[in-house]
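sry for the spam today, last one i promise. struct tokens for design, 228 residues
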């Protein structure tokens, strides 16, 4: 009997190129069902990309009115997001340029005791633990690094501190502009995310890996069942 499709959601804030990469993969692979996209920014480019793929897109910004603090407003927004995800029975969350810290309470709803991780995945534009935070490419560029990269990781309660799934590196060329540098990294982001998704729909989830790596560690990782 064929396995049921994996129900997933994408959280994004910006132009949505990584989200489109994931939706394109899902469109070609029936084992991955993107139930919805959730965006926290009005007018973000990801909204049109979701429409192109026929994926429902919910716009759920943080609304400050009526709350005493930003923290309260953010938690109220997370409750709305969580309700949408639960209604769709989402099992996995893929972050694709989602510019918002996720609370421990939210993450706990997607904790998997068998895997030992939260079933929330993020792509970050640096070789973590170098250059965490919102501007990985910019920070790496300004630091003058000769080699940078991207990191796919499970999300934990810290900022870009979760267990690494895969890292891929690229060189900075002497004649690079920042746009060249960033484009080379983003091409790797799409590649690494797709490799992970291919493993995920084959019923093998990469085991958490400790510490950074500059090589292709995705294919060399031991694998676990999905632990449903």
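last one done:
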């Amino acid at each position: 009997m064929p396995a049921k499709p994996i129900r997933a959601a994408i959280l994004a804030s910006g132009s949505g190129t990584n989200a489109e990469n994931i939706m394109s993969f899902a469109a070609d692979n029936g084992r991955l069902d993107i139930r919805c996209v959730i965006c926290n920014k009005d007018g973000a480019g990801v909204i049109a990309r979701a429409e192109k793929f026929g994926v429902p897109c919910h716009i759920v910004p943080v609304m400050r009115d009526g709350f005493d603090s930003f923290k309260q407003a953010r938690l109220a927004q997370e409750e709305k997001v969580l309700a949408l995800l639960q209604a769709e029975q989402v099992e996995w969350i893929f972050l694709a340029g989602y510019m918002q810290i996720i609370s421990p309470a939210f993450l706990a709803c997607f904790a998997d005791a068998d895997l030992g991780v939260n079933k929330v995945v993020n792509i970050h534009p640096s070789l973590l633990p170098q250059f965490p935070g919102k501007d990985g490419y910019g920070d790496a560029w300004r630091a003058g690094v000769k080699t940078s990269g991207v990191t796919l990781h499970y999300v934990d309660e810290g900022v870009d501190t979760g267990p690494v799934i895969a890292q891929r590196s690229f060189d900075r060329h002497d004649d690079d502009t920042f746009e060249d540098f960033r484009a080379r990294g983003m091409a790797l982001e799409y590649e690494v995310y797709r490799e992970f998704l291919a493993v995920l729909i084959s019923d093998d989830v990469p085991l958490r890996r400790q510490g950074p790596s500059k090589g292709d560690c995705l294919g060399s990782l031991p694998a676990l069942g999905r632990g449903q």
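The mean pLDDT is 88. ok im logging off now
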